[in-house]
Design brief:
Elements: H1 3-9, H2 12-36, H3 45-80, H4 87-116, H5 121-180, H6 183-199, H7 201-221, E1 227-228, H8 229-246, E2 251-256, E3 265-266, H9 270-281, E4 290-297, E5 300-306, H10 319-329, E6 337-340, E7 344-350
Parallel strand pairs: 2-4
Antiparallel strand pairs: 1-3, 4-5, 5-7, 6-7
Helix pairs in contact: 2-3, 3-4, 3-5, 4-5, 5-10, 6-7, 7-8
Length: about 350
């Protein structure tokens, strides 16, 4: 762990203000106690300010010498010995560390003070004892304060992160839903349906069934973080069937998936977005049929299509890819991969095991 990490946990300016307040407060208590007990009488305002300034400076140095090791320890224990797992062992470790560190630092600072303004031997022993006692108490309180501060900051960051994720998720849901109910898709589908009604009533009825199934699936799954690959496949077959009626069977889907992977999970409509992009950006006609393959490689779902880009097609905005990456980021550490190869385009989607959800 570096000082950069410590500064991220507790910025230097905040730590300085925190320690300065403690240092001045501790010195005020010590000076006033010594004065009223007759141990070290204050001889005037100037004498008081000199003692307060010198004592606070030494306390501030000692405070930094206590604070940084404390922060290092807290960060280390958060990884190795969290509060949720072994609370009593952690309290013991932190108490012993705070005690030993405080005794060492108090002796070090007291000896520096003695070098600047020597005490008698009897006074030095007494001062070493009382300073160690005070420093131990201060360091335990500091350890508690740092823990409380870091816990508050972490809770605040988690709350902000959760709010940001909720906003992103809402935006992603809106974009996905909007892509499913976009005017072009509706217009083209209705045109196909209009043509089928006059030519083939049975085919038109099948088209309506598939069309309604698509939108029912969208509305049912849009709120879900994940769906099974089996559910997504059933949906995608309806989607492809609808597209095949539009493109006069110039669109082919080849599925080669082992049964064991059908119970794995992925974000809803991931396959649809991937296949829709393939249809959108490639030529699809009798002379140039579009072939889409679904298979598994190294436990990842691979969606591959032959590459025959539309000349008039505008450049991709990448919005679909960005949304898919964000959706995966909410449920997995793995990220989808998008690759253009020699004769085909390939998308690799992580498959999530049931126990990972």
């Amino acid at each position: 762990m570096s000082f950069t990490t410590v500064n991220q946990l507790f910025p230097f300016r905040k730590l300085l203000n925190f320690l300065l307040g403690i240092s001045v407060g501790v010195q005020l208590v010590i000076i006033l106690y010594n004065h009223y007990s007759g141990y070290a009488i204050i001889e005037g305002a100037t004498h008081f300010l000199i003692r307060l300034s010198f004592g606070s400076l030494l306390s501030l140095v000692g405070g930094f010498m206590l604070a940084y090791p404390n922060l290092f320890l807290i960060h280390f224990l958060n990884k190795k010995l969290s509060w949720h797992k072994k609370i009593f062992l952690r309290i013991t470790v932190q108490f012993l560390f705070a005690f030993l560190l405080a005794v060492f630092i108090s002796i070090f600072v007291t000896l520096i003070s003695n070098a600047v303004s020597p005490f008698t031997n009897d006074d030095l022993n007494s001062i070493l004892f009382y300073n160690a006692l005070i420093t131990v108490g201060v360091n335990i309180l500091m350890m508690i304060s740092l823990e409380a501060w870091l816990y508050f900051n972490e809770s605040n960051r988690s709350k902000i992160k959760a709010e940001n994720l909720e906003r992103e998720l809402s935006q992603i849901k809106f974009e996905v839903l909007k892509s499913q109910i976009n005017p072009h898709f509706m217009f083209n589908s209705l045109n196909v349906l209009s043509g089928l009604i006059d030519k083939d009533v049975k085919k038109a009825q099948r088209f309506i069934d598939e069309f309604s199934m698509i939108y029912r699936y969208v509305l049912e799954t849009i709120e879900k973080p994940v769906v099974s690959l089996n559910e997504e496949l059933k949906f995608i077959r309806s989607y492809i069937s609808l597209q095949q009626m539009r493109y006069d069977n110039s669109l082919y889907l080849d599925v080669d998936l082992p049964g064991e992977f059908l119970k794995t999970y992925l974000p809803p409509l991931s396959l649809q977005v991937t296949i829709e992009n393939a249809i959108k950006h490639n030529i699809v006609n009798t002379s140039n049929p579009l072939k889409i393959e679904l298979c598994v490689k190294d436990k990842w779902l691979v969606v591959r299509n032959n590459l025959q880009p539309k000349i008039s097609s505008g450049g991709s905005t990448g919005l679909g890819q960005k949304n898919m990456i964000k959706r995966y980021a909410m449920i997995s550490e793995q990220t989808p991969k998008f690759m253009v190869k020699t004769n085909f385009y390939e998308v690799e989607l992580p498959l999530i095991k049931p126990e990972e959800i």
